[in-house]
Structures are given as structure tokens and as C-alpha cells.
Amino acid sequence: MKTDTRIVHAGRHPSRFHGAVSTPVYRCSTILSDSVADLKAKARARFDAVSYGRTGTPSTMDLEDAVAELEGGARAIATSSGLAAIAGTLSALLAAGDHVLVTDSAYFPTRRFCDTVLTRFGVTVEYYDPLIGAGIADLMRPETKVVFTEAPGSLTFEMQDIPAIAAAAHAAGALVVMDNTWATPLYFRSFEKGVDVSVHAGTKYIVGHSDAMLGLIVCRTDALFDRIKSTVTAFGYSLAGDDAFLGLRGLRTLSVRLAHHQASTLEVATWLQQQPDVARVLYPALPDDPGHAIWKRDFLGASGLLGVELRPAPVAAMEAMLDALTLFGLGYSWGGFESLAIPTSGSVHRTATTWNPAGPTIRLHIGLEDVTDLKTDLERGFAAFRAAAAGA
Question: What percent of the chain has pLDDT over 90?
């Protein structure tokens, strides 16, 4: 099946639910068994049976099956948030005495978890230049168990050479974990590029409507699934049936939404490059972006998130710009139908590399609104930016 067809049909079993097109919401904790033998059989089946609400219901299992099929993994695990997916994965794959390599451009909550939890449990965390590529082989140690990647990088949008990093990691006996939230399973085929475990903040594009929290862990093999699912279950991570339903509902329109996000974002990004108050636009799909060649080689599309470096000016001018926006909401997360903006100056944390933007920085998510209206809103913001900069 082609991708658009697979999105519609993956994880759907109407015959199990009296012909219902969508998997119903299962709100349950206790699952009754017909007999002691049935109770024991469910226990032996572990994660393949519906035995208790926390370990999985038809709502969560159909979502997991659909996402695993779309990304080409063996199995998937649904959790309550993207950070829970990251934390559960790294906790399952690392132990005291192990060494993990983490891209210096990682999502800040990932970094915080590594620095405050993994280190407390005896794991050595080392950050590396996201542009290192095959050179990561020089950082591998006998105790390196995981290389954590994210492409493009959070806030700074560097493109990583995932196939080269994966080849070096595997040669040294390490696993590759990737935060694939930006591209989704549709625009980056992680397992074809050497990734072992792909994690997603399904809160974003998979849910797509800013109304549910969701994390997903997609595993290349059944063995990795069993290892990570065991840890996730031990931590008590789970996903409510209502949120699983919203994830499945959003998944069905992922392809058409992403196409709209991509087209609008390319138009806005190109327009931003022409604005005198913009020093640089950070978006790998732009032909002059430093990561464009890797994006074009490895990715099947681009989503709606980009960064903007403004010309040198006081941070207060950038804040005046954001305050002047009316269509772009000021709020965290992204991937929903609405456009969003946040300030990112001072939010980039680096230890292996440096980040020296020309001026204040912001992050934009381009939603599903009309692009002309979004440009008008940004023009209003730039006018406020210039006025504040002139008065500083």
C-alpha cells in the first residue's frame, strides 16, 4: 500500500468493534478473565494480551500498531508524553557504568533528564557536535551503549548525518536512538537510515490538534520492544484511552496536514529571508540552509517548525515583536493547527559547541491559517520590532 492508504487503514479493525470505523475509547483499569486458566494465559502473554488498563488496551494497542507500521518498525509503545518516551527509552537501554553520547542540539528536557537523572544513576553523559557525522567514531568508548540523535536540532535546526552516525555507532556496538518528532514517520524513514529506536512527541503532529499529550517509542526489533516496554511498565507509564483515541484520530489526517504545513512554511520561510529585520532563517528545506543537502538526501518532506535569527537588536525589541502578534499564539509545543511563536534567546544550552546568533532569536510554528494573513501578522510584529529597536 502507498503511504496515504496505509495512514487510513493501519491499526484499524472495524470487525472487532461491531463495524465501528474508529477504535472505540477504552476507559478501564480492571480486565476480567473467564477463568483462572484465562487469567494465567494473559499473564504469560505479557504485552500481547489485554490484562490491565495500565499495560495496554485496544485503544492504545491499535495506535501502537498503526505508528509502528507507518514507520516500518517491529512494534511501538505509547506513553503519556514525548518526554516519557525519551526517559523510558534511555532508562531501558542504559545502566550504571554506561556511556551515552547525546547531540548538543537536543530538546532541552532531554538534556535535563540526562544531566539530572541518568547521571544520578551512574551513567556518563557526553554531548557531541550535531554536525560530527562519521567522526563520532572517535568518541565511542567500550562502555558506550547509546548514541542519541535529533534531526533537525531543537531550536537551532542543524541536520545530522544519521546514516553515518548510525554506521559508526553500530560498528562500536552501540544503539542509535532518534527523536523524530519534527519529521514524523512520514518524512523520515528512521529504520532505513540506521536508527534502532525512534521516539516521538506525538503531542505534536500525530495528535495534531493541541488537545492531548502523547509519546511514542517505535522499536526496530521485537527484542528492543520487550526490553523497553518492560522498563516503561515498571515505571508505571501509561496512556489513557481518550488520548489514544485522539492520537489515532489525528494520525488519519497526518499526511494532508503535513503537506499544508510544509507548503505554507516554505512560503513563509522564503518571505522571511527577504525581510530586512531577519539575519537568517533556520529551516533545512531552504536551498541555502547549511543542512539542505542532508535533508534533501534523507528526508521526504519538511514540517512547519522553523527558527529565525533577527538582526542585532536588544532582546526587548524581539519581545515587542512577539507581543504585537495576534494570529501567532505565544505558547509552547507545536504541531497543531494553530501558528505559534516563542522567544528562544537564552534558551539554547550547549557544552560541546557554541551558538552565536546574529541577534535575538525566535521559533515559529506555521499552522493551517492562510499564509497571507500570517505574513500580515508578522509584518505587524516587525514594525513593533523596529520601533522598539529605534527607541532603545
Answer: 86
Region 119-130 average pLDDT: 98
Asked if 204 is an active-site residue, the reply is: yes
Give yes or no: 112 in active site.
no
- pLDDT tens digits, 189-246: 999 999 999 999 999 999 999 999 999 999 999 999 999 999 999 999 999 999 999 9
Which residue in the list 16, 27, 40, 54 is annotated as catalytic? 54
pLDDT in tens, 64-78: 999 999 999 999 999
Contacts of 163 (CB under 8 A, 6+ apart): 193, 194, 298
Catalytic one of 62, 104, 107, 187? 107
> Strand (E) positions, 47-105?
75-79, 99-103
Q: How far is residue 30's CA from residue 97's CA, in Å, rounded to a whole number?
A: 39
Q: Which of 341, 392, 345, 388 is nearest to 363 (CA)?
A: 341
What residues does 103 pair with on adjacent strands?
A: 128
- Catalytic choice (179, 277, 289, 298): 179
Is 4 catalytic? The answer is no
Query: Is the previous residue joined to 152 through a cis bond, with omega within 30 degrees of 0?
Result: yes
Q: Is 179 a catalytic residue?
A: yes
